[in-house]
Amino acid sequence: MHNVMNKAQELAEAILNSETCQRMKAAEIRLNSDEEATRAIAAFMEKRSAVENILASNNLDHDALAKAGKAMEEAEKAMNECALVKELQQSRKEFSTMMENVNRILRLVITGETDEEEGCSGDCGSCGSCSSCGGCH
């Protein structure tokens, strides 16, 4: 059991020190330090909260919901146009892909089962190399 825990610790440290994780953390820091990006995110969250409050009310006002929904969509569009938000979204996607590949490898080694439908992501940087996932398709 001790050996398993040590290997889990090593895997966690390897993930933490990976270029993919480091890029994501750096993107988070840059975004959180940028006034424009944080303002855009806050505006979107405020508009989303307004929509949720309307939906939670006992007397649903369809006109108010339509207006709030449109305002939320506009705020989301403005947020998604922010370069730092795009960078963070992309780095999170890459990290997620890496973690999916790690889990896929663990599942394969432990159970012998593969996810044939999913296959390789085609991005060898996400899993290390073509040899670790069976080759790019």
Q: Can you lay out the helices and strands and say which pair or pack?
A:
Blueprint: H1 2-17, H2 19-33, H3 35-56, H4 62-81, H5 83-111, H6 124-127, H7 130-133
Rg measurement, Å: 21 Å
SSE arrangement, N to C: HHHHHHH
Largest sheet properties:
none
- Helix fraction, binned, reads over 70%
* Oligomer category: single chain
Count up the helices.
7
Distance between the termini: 37 Å
Number of DSSP-assigned strands: 0
Strand content: under 5%
Average pLDDT reading: 88
- What is the general shape? elongated
Spans of at least 5 consecutive residues whose pLDDT stays below 50 are none
The class by helix and strand makeup works out as mainly alpha
Please characterize this protein's 3D structure.
The chain is mostly helical. It is 80% helix and 0% strand. The protein is built from seven helices and no strands.
How do you describe this structure in short?
With 137 residues, the protein is mainly alpha-helical. It contains seven helices and no strands. The longest helix has 29 residues.
Descriptors:
137 residues; mainly alpha; 7 helices
